[in-house]
Structures are given as structure tokens and as C-alpha cells.
Amino acid sequence: MRSSLDEEAIGILKANDRGGFTVPTARLYPYQWNWDSAFAALGFAEFDRDRAWREIETLFEAQWPDGMVPHIVFRQNDPDYFPGPAIWQSNTEPPSSGHSQPPVTASIVLRLVESGGTADIERARALFDRMLAFHRWFHAMRDPEDTGLVGIIHPWESGRDNCPDWDIGMDRIVVPDDLGPYQRRDTEHIDPAERPSAEQYDRYLTIIKFGRECGWDHVEMARNGPFYMGDPGVQFILMRADRDLLRLAELLGERSAQSEIAHWLERARDGCQLLWNPAVNAFCARDLRTREFSDGITSASMLAFYAGAGSDEQRDAMAAHARRILDDVEFGFPSFDPTHPRFESKRYWRGPVWAIINFLIVDGLNNAGETELADRIKADTRRLIETAGFYEYFDPRTGEGLGGADFTWTAAVHLVWGSGSTNSQAA
Ligand code: DGY
Q1: Is 392 labeled as catalytic in the residue annotation?
Q2: How far, in Å, is the centroid of ligand 1 from the Cα of 214?
Q3: Phi and psi for 330 in degrees, rounded to 5?
Q4: Domains along the sequence of the chain with CATH
């Protein structure tokens, strides 16, 4: 028996369906976004498994010849969004943005396989080489020196666009005189107080200009681009996705891939230690050019559990931070430490709560045996959705819904947690 909230969530996924791919929300984000689509697939799997697979397949149709799966796929030109295909100039078909996003797809494909039957195994088999190429791209292009730690070349690649994590890297970007005028569209749809600042947008576009001018040469971007930082979010999500891809390789009998993936996992176990900030006693973002650490703990720091990363002592320290942070807010988990001076409770990734990050944190905490913390964060997420609705993000102090309404991935998290058929591994 479905509740009215379940029906509403299903209605949101259907309304945001553009025929094989789903937009995160109408107008604000009118294209297909990489990790949004992966979460959309999880939501669809609760009532239409064929449609769930289509979501992932259409995303991989936009894969670049070098293996990258881009962060936005532009199937049509939509004046509601800036920066569109003409700014990125990807020279790909379909046109896309020029960098990637947290690679959650392999983990979501594994969930579909483990909760499904032979039809699901065949759909996963057809995607396996593409997923492997995507992971290979991340390791080669985002860690060209093979340190075991991947970097990101744009804050948007983290999916946590304007988090204070990136302030040290963003401050070093010199905005060129010939950047040219441009018109943002996001602040026409959403209160500017809930979105990134004008100074941040100038820097976002400076990175895109560099990428465009070097023809999106990704090794050049990692070595000499305006921005290159280590992100606990992408690092931990990739570690978990590598583990899940290895499991898929075993299930599918893909023997030749297994040693390559095992090697990535081994390197990453050391590599993630480069993100341990002893001054804060936590995993933090780090500028990979200057080696300077960000001094803030974020919701992405808590994905150490999701990756199974770090020593027992490090995980105990992270759990203690999690308790302290949760005690400071009404609704967890805030995207930035609420006791830090840079915390802002309403501005996009500088404080608000995101249901999908909570979903990943809860999965990791449950796997680590931290069930009390996991239950608390899950209950907070439910309260937020029940009282405010399916918003993009939420104020951790007041619970107010912020950003876009009727948001695909918030609806998807509700469905997966609500009905329980595909959440067996997360439970
Ligand atoms: C945006 O436009 O704000 C997106 O988050 C970029 O991916």
C-alpha cells in the first residue's frame, strides 16, 4: 500500500521524465545531470525497472571516447540554463559539459543487480565495459601521477559546487579581463541568497574557459588548470564504486577487469590518507597544488564510512565529529560544519542538508555498525521531506525547503527508503 507521499514522489519522477532521461527539476536544471540520473534510476527501480535501466543507459550514451561520463548532457538547447552547450564546446554528440561528477553509477547498478533477476544481470553486462572505461578515466585523468588520490578540476565536478571546501582553491583563480559578460539564469529561478555568489561564478567560468581553450585535454587540466583539489566526496564515492564494480566483475564473470580494479582499490587506501587533516583530526578537502588543507568538516567527510576508508581510530574520530555536528543542528546532516565561521544555513552547499548525501552517509554508517547515528540521520531526512516537501536542499536549523522544488533525487531517496525493496544492502 503506497502512502500519499509515495504517490507524490512517483509523480515527481514521472513529471521530470523527458523520455529516457530525467531532469533534476524543471527550469532550474533542464538537462540530464550525471549523478542525479543515477539516483533517479534508484527511484524508478521502485516501480518501473525498465525505466530505471534506461536512465543509466542514456547517461552512458553521452560517454566521451576517452571514457569520461560528463556531468551534464545537453540533448536540446534550453535558454533556461546557463552555461549551456555553446559555452562548454565539448565537440561531442550529444553535446555535454567538459568534466564529470561523483561516479555513483556502478554502485547503483550493483544495487539493481542484487535486488533483481536475470534481466537486470543482462542490462548490467551490456554496460560493464562502459563503466570500467569510466573508472579507468577517473584514475588516469584525475590522478595522472598515480598517487591513489583523485583530484577534481572544477568545484562542479564534486557535485558540491560552492562548498567552503573549495574556497582556498577558488581564491587562487585569476579571472581574466576577457572573460566577457554573461547572464546567469539560476538566480532568476531561485533566491540569490540560496545560490553561489557572483565572484564564484566568474571563477567557475574561468575554469571552463581554460578547458575549452585546451580542447578539454584532461591531463593538462589536472597538471596546469586553474583549479585542482582533492575532494573527500569524489575520492570516497569512487573507492566505494570501485569496490562495487569489482563485485559486479565477479558476478558477471569479467575476469580480466578484476586485477585492474583491485589495484585501484589498493592505491586508494593509501591515497585517501592524503586527505587526513591532523589539525582538524578529520578527512578534509585539500588543494593538490599548494598541499594546503581546507579546515572544515563536511557531509562528504562523513562518506569515509561509505568507502570503508581510514583506520579504526580515524573512523572513531569521524563518528565523534558526526555526533557533535548533529547536536548543533535541528536536522542533519549539514553540508558544512555549523560551528565553522563559513557555515551559511541557506546557501546551497555551504550548510544545507541534502537527502542524497544523507542516503550515502546512512548506508556507510550502517555498514560500519554505527546504526544509532544512521537511524538519526535517516529520521531527520524523513522529517524534512514530510514537513517541507521534496526540495533540493533544506535549512539544517529550521527545516525550510530550499532551492528547486519537486526534486528528482529527493523523491528517489524517499522511495528507496520508503518501500524497502531495493534497500536491503543499505539497511
Ligand atoms: C548548477 O548549475 O548549479 C549545477 O550545479 C552545476 O552542475
Answers
A1: yes
A2: 22
A3: -80, -35
A4: 4-418 (1.50.10.10)
Contacts of 103 (CB under 8 A, 6+ apart): 35, 69, 134, 135, 138, 234, 237, 238, 241
pLDDT tens series, the chain, 427 aa: 678 999 999 999 999 999 999 999 999 999 999 999 999 999 999 999 999 999 999 999 999 999 999 999 999 889 999 999 999 999 999 999 999 999 999 999 999 999 999 999 999 999 999 999 999 999 999 999 999 999 999 999 999 999 999 999 999 999 999 998 999 999 999 999 999 999 999 999 999 999 999 999 999 999 999 999 999 999 999 999 999 999 999 999 999 999 999 999 999 999 999 999 999 999 999 999 999 999 999 999 999 999 999 999 999 999 999 999 999 999 999 999 999 999 999 999 999 999 999 999 999 999 999 999 999 999 999 999 999 999 999 999 999 999 999 999 999 999 999 854 433 343 3
CA pair distance 315, 282, nearest whole angstrom:
9
Question: Pairing state of beta strands 72-73 and 393-394?
Answer: unpaired
Any ligand 1 atom below 6 A from CB of 31: no
| Pocket probe mutation, ligand 1, options 156, 188, 194, 350, max atoms within 8 Å of Cβ | 156
- Ligand 1 pocket, mutate which of 161, 186, 335, 348 (most atoms under 8 A from CB): 161
- Asked if 301 contacts 314 with a C-beta cutoff of 8 angstroms, the reply is no
Q: Name residues whose C-beta falls within 8 Å of residue 402's C-beta, 6 or more positions apart in sequence.
A: 194, 346, 352, 391, 392, 393, 394, 395
H/E/C letters for each residue in 47-63?
Answer: CCHHHHHHHHHHHHHCC
Residue 406 appears among annotated catalytic residues: no
Local structure of 300: helix, strand or coil = coil
For residue 3, the CA-to-ligand 1 centroid distance in Å is 32
Q: Which one is catalytic: 161, 186, 244, 287?
A: 161
Q: Going by CA atoms, what residue is nearest to atom 7 of ligand 1? A: 156
Residue (of 416, 380, 412, 372) closest to 398 by Cα position: 380
Three-state SS at 73: strand
Which amino acid type is present at position 269? Answer: R
Catalytic residue among 370, 392, 395, 400: 392
Instruction: Determine whether the shortest distance from the Cβ of 156 to ligand 1 is under 6 A.
Output: yes
Distance CA 269, CA 314 (A): 13
DSSP for residue 413: H
Pick from 87, 155, 189: nearest CA to 407: 189
